[in-house]
Design brief:
heterodimer; A: mainly alpha; 5 helices; 0% strand; B: 70 residues; 434 Repressor (Amino-terminal Domain)
């Protein structure tokens, strides 16, 4: 349980570092690059989304460190083998569905805009390469 | 290969609740429910823990059935 407690502390720390560095990078990018309004909007959207998730994580994890019972429940929920299997299966299914949707979108976009088709195709190829690399890694590791 | 188990039978015989068993095996109650319903097969580690909890061997707790027509 002590290991899990350390893990949670590390997560809280990383979330806090992520919040601060995210804010710093955002303002640095805006100041240094003089980004156009559209890019500023995208950056702000990414930053606010990430900050919300990080702050939510911090407020979710902090009480667990104070309460032994809650900590044990969280440990069981995280290490439960059925939960782990569900997450793995879900990730695999989501990946397959995402690739299929991207492929369909690439085909649909080919009727209107070749740039979108190329971007989506490059995205699919990249996901394929990463999948092969990750599979090869786990083949060696396990 | 089909795997059946006697978890529900033994748990009820010993008057242990699903939550108590889940706590003893460090899994969620939902995992115990799935095991009892035969929807989920336990890992070797969990099978070992469960067998230890009931004081029997893995072979006594889990019934391995060879599939026919292979």
């Amino acid at each position: 349980m002590e290991e899990f407690r350390k893990k949670l502390r590390r997560r809280i720390m990383l979330s806090a570092i992520f919040c601060l560095s995210g804010l710093f990078i955002y303002f640095a990018l805006i100041r240094i690059t003089g980004a156009p309004e559209y890019t500023k909007g995208i950056l702000f959207g990414v930053l606010s989304g990430s900050l919300t998730v990080s702050v939510f994580n911090i407020f979710r994890l902090m009480p667990l460190l104070q309460d032994e019972e809650k900590l044990k429940k969280a440990y069981i929920a995280e290490t439960d083998e059925r939960n782990t299997l569900i997450q793995k299966e879900s990730a695999r299914t989501v990946l397959s569905i995402s690739i299929m949707i991207a492929a369909l979108a690439a085909i649909a976009a080919s009727f209107f805009n070749p740039v979108i088709t190329l971007t989506l195709s490059a995205n699919i190829i990249l996901i394929g390469i990463v999948s092969i690399a990750v599979t090869a890694y786990y083949n060696k590791k396990l | 290969m089909n795997v059946k188990n006697k978890i529900q039978e033994l748990r009820k015989a010993r008057k242990v609740t699903q939550q108590e068993l889940a706590d003893a095996l460090s899994v969620t109650r939902q995992t115990i429910i799935s095991l009892e319903n035969g929807k989920y097969n336990a890992s070797l580690t969990l099978a070992h823990k469960a067998a230890q909890f009931f004081g029997i061997t893995i072979e006594e707790l889990f019934i391995f059935e060879e599939e026919e027509n292979l």
